[in-house]
Design goal:
Layout lengths: L1 H25 L4 H13 L22 E3 L6 E6 L25 E4 L20 E3 L12 E3 L20 E3 L7 E2 L12 E3 L4 E2 L13 E3 L21 E3 L6 E3 L2 H6 L5 E3 L4 E4 L12 E3 L4 E5 L5 H6 L5 E4 L4 E4 L12 E4 L4 E5 L11 E5 L4 E5 L12 E3 L4 E5 L12 E3 L4 E5 L12 E3 L4 E5 L12 E3 L4 E4 L40 E5 L2 E5 L8 E3 L4 E2 L15 E3 L21 E3 L6 E2 L13 E3 L4 E5 L19 E3 L20 H10 L4 H24 L1 H26 L1
Parallel strand pairs: 2-3, 3-4, 5-6, 6-8, 7-9, 8-10, 10-11, 11-13, 12-14, 13-15, 14-16, 15-17, 16-18, 17-19, 18-20, 19-21, 20-22, 21-23, 22-24, 23-25, 24-26, 25-27, 26-28, 27-29, 28-30, 29-33, 30-34, 33-35, 35-36, 36-38, 37-39, 39-40
Antiparallel strand pairs: 1-2, 31-32
Length: 722
């Protein structure tokens, strides 16, 4: 009986171990993936004797062509590439089974005679990076649109043999992909093509076997003249060739084709020539030739411009070129929404103010960085449609006193670096939507408007380098967009530039801000960018004591004024502050220790004031050089050459003989006390050693305690030695 029980137990254990080993083997990849691989095995043939077999009951992660994740054991790659001697049954693999591998990153299945269509469920494989299915008999016959943006396709992609049924093809943002003519060999019905951010390597003599209506090639490293094969595309209505390193003169055939375009974008290249040299009748709705070397005048009266402003909603981007002459007043004739960028050219003469007066439909006007002159008509009522107005870096002069009433869309007003004069117009306080107000480097005088505190959306205020006087208005602390830190959960509903659909977008053309001791330029303004610059004026009075309520502010510059009083302790509440400049004023008192809590502070200038006391020695304060504090005679501490107010040692004074005797007695070594201390210490140590020898558990605890103490003290000792 006992023998039977032993045999039963032994066999049971054997079966359990055998089952466990098999189960572990089978489950190294999940059961669903294991079964899917076995279904592949039914249709594949393997060369005998090479160990290629996918055998049932073996470790699937060790099979030929299978790679598993080391941690989760999911199948991540299936690579079946038999040789060309016929191994692999034709028409075999059921491609739908590929969708049973959710962690799959790569698929390589070649020379197995696939005749199925690619399953649509492949789009659900979120980790898929590479698909190579070469030399099969696939047919995608009803496929018309193929979007493969933002992947990692390489030079092997053309071997897919894309079906001729494709009409729309997008391979943008595949940075490792180089495309030649072979890529298009079957695409006879193609009519929309986007290959942005890939490398295009196509012969200049190539003639496509398709006719495109829309072509987008952005950042394709073409590096040459505009490809002549584009001239064979007679159905084009939209052409984008931006940022390709293109050189040479814009060919006449392109201007001729542009007569029927809705959109032409050849920006950010090195092209030269003139705009519409032959004056074609154009219906272009979006014309972007910015950031090139085009020259000559902007066409005035004539067929070119007349047709240009009669088409669909117009975006005319001529900025950052070499255009000269006047701005054509005929641009005012457009009754359409208009985005007009002419900044950074060599234009002169007067501004046609009809572009922005009431009734105009323009929403985005940038004329900055030219040589425009003249004054703004008094009482000019701005168009209620305008959202962005940039007139900076010109020679404009006279009183700036337009009328703003009930404005709800104007977000950016930049008239900096001109010669405008007079008082700041109070009607600015009516622009409830204003996010950036830049009026620096002009000749404005008078007080800063208290009405500015009503601008709840204002992110950027720059009134620097004027002749403004008086005190800083207290209600500046009510600028809500600057009064909330990121951690408070406050996020502006919009940011500059605005992109509200209908192909409308805005570039600020480089919004300049004096911060961190230098001039910074921003093309786009995020909702987290906040700044106040009132520097280089004639302001007096105190810095508002509760200015720290603007705890979302990032840049604050009040330098080169005549401000007095103390530095408010509340500035320590500006948790997002990156740049603080209070230099060249008449501030007094101590530097608030609260500034030590400004963990983002990267630039600090408190020089040339009347500050006194010790420089705080914590937080970011210890990272600034002495130039941040120079010019404050009563200020001391690191990093100034004068040390902190540490205890000073006076020279020795003469003493009497009795005092010398007392000093000698007090300095005698107390040998009796020292001996008594050593005696007590030795006795205590003897008792401890005896107890440690008797009890092992005490001995272990003792030495563990010593180790812990040494581990704790070691970093401090090491740092002190360093």
């Amino acid at each position: 009986m006992a023998l039977a029980i032993v045999k039963f137990a032994t066999s049971t254990v054997f079966l359990i171990v055998l089952f466990a080993n098999t189960y572990i083997c089978l489950c190294r990849c999940p059961p669903q993936e294991y079964e899917a691989l076995l279904s592949f095995n039914i249709t594949l043939t393997f060369p005998t004797g090479y160990g290629y077999e996918w055998a049932n009951g073996t470790d699937c992660c060790e099979w030929y062509g299978i790679e598993c994740d080391e941690h989760k054991n999911h199948v991540v790659e299936i690579r079946w590439m038999p040789d060309r001697n016929g191994y692999g049954r034709e028409g075999g693999i059921m491609l739908d089974n590929l969708c049973k591998f959710p962690s799959l990153t790569g698929i390589v299945i070649s020379y197995v005679g696939l005749t199925n269509n690619l399953p649509s469920c492949l789009g659900n494989l979120n980790f898929l990076e590479d698909i190579i299915i070469e030399y099969n008999g696939l047919g995608l016959s009803s496929l018309t649109d193929l979007h493969a943006r933002g992947n990692r396709f390489n030079e092997s992609a053309p071997s897919w043999g894309l079906p001729s049924s494709i009409k729309l093809l997008s391979f943008s943002l595949n940075h490792e992909l180089t495309i030649s003519e072979k890529f298009f060999r079957n695409l006879t019905n193609l009519w929309r093509l986007s290959l942005s951010n890939s490398t295009l390597n196509i012969s200049t003599s190539w003639i496509p076997n398709f006719q495109l209506s829309a072509l987008e090639l952005v950042s394709c490293q073409m590096d040459g003249q505009i490809p002549p094969w584009i001239s064979t595309q007679f159905s084009l209505y939209s052409l984008t060739l931006a940022d390709n390193g293109l050189v040479g003169e814009i060919p006449s055939w392109l201007w001729a084709m542009a007569a029927s375009f809705d959109e032409l974008n050849i920006s950010q290249n090195h092209l030269h020539g003139s705009l519409f040299p032959n004056g074609p009748n154009s219906r272009i709705g979006i014309l972007d030739v910015s950031s090139n070397a085009l020259s000559g005048n902007i066409p005035s009266e004539g067929p070119a411009l007349t047709k240009l402003i009669e088409g669909p909603p117009l975006q005319l981007m001529l900025n950052d070129n070499l255009f000269t002459g006047n701005i054509p007043p005929s641009l005012c004739n457009s009754s359409l929404w208009l985005q007009l960028h002419l900044e950074n050219n060599m234009l002169d003469g007067m501004i046609p103010w009809c572009l922005i007066e009431d009734g105009s439909r323009i929403y985005d006007l940038n004329l900055g960085g030219n040589s425009l002159e003249g004054s703004m008509p008094q009482g000019l009522i701005f168009s209620s449609s305008i959202e962005y107005l940039v007139l900076k870096n010109n020679q404009l002069s006279g009183i700036f006193a337009p009328s703003f009433t009930n404005y709800t869309v104007l977000q950016l007003l930049d008239i900096g670096h001109n010669k405008f004069s007079g008082h700041l117009p109070k009607s600015i306080g009516n622009i409830s939507s204003l996010q950036a107000l830049v009026m620096n480097d002009n000749q404005f005088r008078g007080n800063i408007l208290s009405e500015l505190g009503d601008l709840k959306q204002l992110q950027i205020l720059d009134l620097s380098s004027n002749s403004l006087s008086g005190s800083i208005p207290h209600n500046i602390v009510f600028l809500r967009a600057m009064a909330a830190a990121i951690e408070d959960g406050y996020v502006l509903q919009s940011s500059l530039p605005y992109d509200g659909g209908n192909s409308r977008s805005s570039s600020l053309g480089g919004l300049g801000m004096a911060s961190k001791g230098t001039e910074l330029y921003y093309t786009y303004i995020l909702s987290t960018l906040t700044s106040i610059d009132l520097s280089n004026n004639q302001l007096t009075g105190d810095v508002p004591l509760d200015l720290g309520k603007l705890k979302g502010l990032r840049f604050l510059n009040l330098s080169m004024n005549s401000l007095n009083g103390i530095i408010p302790h509340s500035l320590g509440d500006m948790s997002q502050l990156e740049s603080l400049d209070l230099s060249s004023n008449k501030l007094s008192g101590n530097i608030p220790s609260e500034l030590q809590s400004l963990s983002y502070l990267a630039y600090l200038n408190l020089s040339n004031n009347n500050l006194s006391g010790n420089i705080p020695q914590g937080g970011q304060m210890i990272t600034f050089e002495n130039t941040s504090y120079a010019g404050n005679p009563n200020l001391q501490g690191w990093p100034l050459p004068k040390n902190c107010n540490w205890p000073k040692f006076a020279p020795p004074r003469p003493v009497s003989s009795s005092e010398n005797k007392d000093d000698e007695e007090s300095q005698q070594i107390p040998w009796y006390e020292i001996g008594l201390g050593w005696s007590y210490g030795a006795g205590f140590l003897s008792i401890v050693v005896l107890l440690l020898l008797v009890r092992e558990s005490w001995r272990k605890k003792y030495f563990k305690g010593v180790d812990d103490i040494l581990k704790f003290l070691f970093p401090f000792v090491r740092n002190r030695r360093l």
